[in-house]
Write a structure and sequence with these properties.
alpha/beta; Rossmann fold; 4-stranded parallel β-sheet; 43% helix; binds adenosine-5'-triphosphate
Length: 329
C-alpha cells in the first residue's frame, strides 16, 4: 500500500476558517481513527496560524473523550494572514517536518482548502480536506459539517420570533448568515414558513415582495416572516426592511441572528457526518492520497479534488425556490 511505502507514522489535524458545530466530533474521529490504524495523531491548534507558531501537540484517545456533543472546536480555529505568504507556509511546513508529520487533515471551508492545496504543491505532506463550514457551499458533498446545526439553531430562533410576530400582527425580517451562499436562508425559510427568502444566488424583487406583503394583509395574514441572507444583493435585513417598508407602508421589525448560528450542540446528522468524514480522511491518508476533499454524496463517501470543491459554487435547486413561492400563497 502507498501509505506503507511512505511510512505514514504521524498525522496532524487542524480546524481553519470560521468555526462550526461538528468540528469537535470530526477531530475526535480523526484522532481515534489514526490510533486504530497505528498512526500517531497530532492536534495543530489555531489552524494554519498555529502550524506557523508550532502549536502542535500529540493527542491520545482520552484527549478527545466527551467532545462529540460540544459545539465549537477544542483545538481552536483561526484565520491566518501569514499563511497566505510563501514564507509563512515555509515556516509551517518546517514545523510539520520537525514533528515527523507526513499527513494532514484540514477541517474547514473553501479558503482553508486553498491553503491545503498550496501545502500539497509546496511540500511532501499528504493533505486531505474535510468540509467544515456552515455555508454548505462546496461541491463534492451533499452537506458540509456544521450546516445542519446552523439551520436548526436559526429555525429555533425563527420559531420564537414567529410567536411574537403572531401575537402582535407583525412583519419580521430575519437575517441569517450567508455572505455568498443562500442555503441556510432557503432551508430555514421553507421549514419556518417564511413569506419570502432573499438570497445572493437569485435576484431579489423588492417591489414584488412589498406587493406580496400588502396583499397578504388584505387576505388576512397578520404576521409574516421574510428571511434574508446577509449577502443578498439588496442588502441585509435592515436594508431590505427599509426598502420594503417605504413601498408597502407597513412597519416591520428586524432581527439579525448573527454568530449564534455557528454555535450549539451539534445535531445527530452533523455528528454522524463528522465521524464518517474523519474516518474517511484518515483512510485516504493511509492509502497515500492527497489533494482531495472527502464528502458524502447520496449516502456514500466520495472524494473530490480540492480545486473542484470550490471551483463552481453549488447552485440552489429550483425545487426549493418553488417551495418558498408555492407554500407562501
Ligand atoms: P468559512 O467558510 O467558514 O469562512 P474558510 O475555510 O473559507 O471557512 P477562510 O477565512 O476563507 O475560511 O480561510 C481560512 C484560512 O485559509 C485563511 O485565513 C488563510 O490562512 C488560508 N487560506 C485562504 N486562502 C488561501 C490561499 N489562497 N492560499 C493559502 N492559504 C489560504
Amino acid at each position: 500500500m502507498a501509505a506503507e511505502k511512505r511510512k505514514m507514522k504521524r498525522i496532524g489535524v487542524l480546524c481553519s476558517g470560521g468555526d462550526c458545530s461538528g468540528m469537535n466530533p470530526c477531530v475526535r474521529a480523526v484522532v481515534r481513527s489514526a490510533i486504530y490504524y497505528g498512526i500517531e495523531p497530532f492536534a495543530i491548534y489555531r489552524g494554519y496560524q498555529g502550524m506557523i507558531e508550532n502549536q502542535i501537540k500529540p493527542m491520545c484517545g482520552r484527549d478527545v473523550a466527551g467532545i462529540g456533543n460540544r459545539g465549537g472546536t477544542i483545538i481552536g480555529s483561526a484565520r491566518s494572514q501569514e499563511f497566505l505568504t510563501k514564507a509563512g507556509r515555509k515556516k509551517a511546513i518546517k514545523n510539520l517536518h520537525a514533528h515527523g508529520i507526513g499527513g494532514l487533515v484540514v477541517i474547514g471551508g473553501d479558503g482553508s482548502f486553498h491553503g491545503a492545496e498550496a501545502l500539497c504543491k509546496e511540500s511532501d505532506v499528504l493533505t486531505i480536506g474535510v468540509p467544515g463550514t456552515i455555508d454548505n457551499d462546496l461541491e463534492g458533498t451533499d452537506f458540509t459539517i456544521g450546516y445542519d446545526t446552523a439551520v436548526n439553531v436559526a429555525l429555533d430562533a425563527l420559531d420564537k420570533i414567529r410567536d411574537t410576530a403572531a401575537s402582535h400582527d407583525r412583519i419580521f425580517f430575519i437575517e441569517v448568515m450567508g455572505r455568498h451562499a443562500g442555503y441556510i436562508a432557503l432551508e430555514v425559510g421553507i421549514a419556518g414558513g417564511a413569506e419570502d427568502v432573499l438570497i445572493p444566488e437569485t435576484s431579489s424583487d423588492v417591489p414584488g415582495l412589498a406587493k406580496k406583503l400588502v396583499e397578504g394583509r388584505a387576505k388576512g395574514k397578520m404576521s409574516s416572516i421574510v428571511v434574508v441572507a446577509e449577502g443578498d444583493e439588496e442588502g441585509g435585513a435592515f436594508e431590505v426592511a427599509g426598502k420594503v417598508g417605504k413601498l408597502a407602508q407597513i412597519p416591520a421589525r428586524v432581527s439579525v441572528l448573527g454568530h449564534m448560528q455557528r454555535g450549539g450542540i451539534p445535531t445527530a446528522a452533523d455528528r454522524l457526518l463528522a465521524s464518517r468524514l474523519g474516518l474517511a480522511a484518515v483512510r485516504e491518508l493511509r492509502a497515500g492520497n492527497s489533494g482531495v476533499m472527502v464528502g458524502v454524496v447520496s449516502g456514500k463517501i466520495k472524494t473530490t479534488k480540492l480545486c473542484n470543491s470550490w471551483e463552481s459554487h453549488r447552485k440552489v435547486t429550483p425545487e426549493l425556490l418553488d417551495l418558498v413561492k408555492i407554500l407562501s400563497i
